[in-house]
Structures are given as C-alpha cells and as structure tokens.
Design brief:
alpha+beta, 4 helices, globular, 9 strands, 4-stranded mixed β-sheet
Length: 223
C-alpha cells in the first residue's frame, strides 16, 4: 500500500449496505437501503477483474443522466437519500458508483486510482461545452452537498446542459425537414435508332425534370 493510498481512501467500515438477490425477481437489491422500484442495483466488471457496485435511479421526467462520483469517505448506502433528492429536484436520472474497496465493491484502492486534479482541468479545457467550475471555500470531499452554493451551481449546470441538448436536437430536426436537393444531369448525347422506313435521331433529356425529347426524322429515299 503506497503513501497516497493511506491518505486518499477512507471507506466506511463496516459498509453501510450489502448486496443480495431478490428471490422473487432475481434482481440485485441492496440491504440497508429502502426498496425502490426506480432503483437498479448493478454489479459492473472492471478491466482489473474486480466488480464495482452502481446505483441507477430512474426519473421518468428526465432528459439527462447525471454521473455522481462521491467523496473518499462515503459509500452508496450513505448517499442514497441525497441521490433521491437530486433525482427529484434536478429532474435527472442519476448513476452513482462505489470505488474498489468501498461498499460491496471488490478489490481495494491503489495509488493508481489517485488522479491528479490537473487531469480534470485538462478534460475541462477539451470540452466542447466547458462549464465554469465551482470552488467552495471550506468545502471538503464529503460535505459539498451541505453548501447551498453547490446545489444552486449544480442546478444551473443541469439547465445549461439541457439547453445545449435542446439546441442539438432542434438542429437535427431542422436538417431532417430541409428539402433534399438532388442534382440531375441531362445527357445530351444523340442516339440513333432505325426503323423500316426512317432513321430517327433522338436527343435524350428528361421530360420529368424539365428536359425534353427531340426527334428528327429522315425519310429514306425509295430506291
């Protein structure tokens, strides 16, 4: 265990919930968490061969899904009530997950799981729709939701993202409603056909698209 690990990971011990399979439905449920038909409990495989637990809370009025990464001293059981409040008040679907070694997730946190804040800063610079971050004086890893500024900022962020999504959808709708512009090529080559008594030269065009047919007949001289 490295130095970063000692200072970075403080999972609740014991965890505030456990997983079990519901005998009637066969679905995973979290004991210690209220039964909720709008809650999906997921067990996700990682590339390291471990499994992490995720809570997915559905809101039928949602247009967006919020991915919530919690602080370093909490697990999903502690955050369930907050998730419900955010889901309802922000009108979003919400997905939260436990890190390795937290809650019922297997494995444990390592130094490799500690990401420098500059990584997030670089992602922000690369975002197509960057949103100003919020710095809360006195705020910590596990208490930001207690600050009214955090909730207001998060709500504003959701509204802005909904606006961006709406603009994108409207643009696609307008594009789908635009008349299709098809370029038609007129072949002006002359084709010669023969009949028993005459020779017809036909200049081909397209009557349907504004062109025309032109026929020139040349009577054959009788022998």
């Amino acid at each position: 265990m490295g130095l970063y690990t000692w200072f970075a990971f403080f999972p609740p011990d014991p965890p505030t919930y456990a997983l079990r399979k519901d005998e009637a439905t066969g679905r995973l449920v979290a004991s210690g968490v209220p039964r909720d038909n709008a809650l999906d409990v997921l067990l996700l495989d990682t590339t390291r061969g471990t499994k992490v637990v995720a809570f997915y809370l559905r809101n039928p009025c949602a247009r967006l899904t919020l991915l919530y990464s919690h602080g370093n001293a909490a697990d999903l059981g502690q955050l369930y009530d907050l998730f419900v409040q955010l889901k309802v008040n922000l009108k979003v679907n919400l997905m939260g997950y436990d890190y390795s070694g937290y809650g019922a997730s297997t494995g444990k946190g390592t130094d490799d799981d500690v990401v420098n804040w500059s990584h997030g800063n670089e992602l922000w610079k690369l975002a197509r729709e960057p949103y100003d971050p919020l710095w809360i004086k006195g705020g910590g890893h596990c208490n930001l939701e207690l600050y009214p500024d955090f909730i207001r900022h998060l709500s504003k962020f959701i509204r802005e993202m909904e606006s961006v999504t709406t603009k994108t959808r409207l643009k696609k709708i307008r594009q789908s409603l635009e008349p299709t512009k098809t370029a038609y090529r007129v072949n002006t080559a002359t084709t010669t056909t023969f009949t028993a008594n005459c020779c017809c030269r036909v200049a081909w065009g397209s009557r349907k698209h504004g062109g025309h047919f032109k026929e020139e007949e040349e009577e054959e001289e009788e022998a």
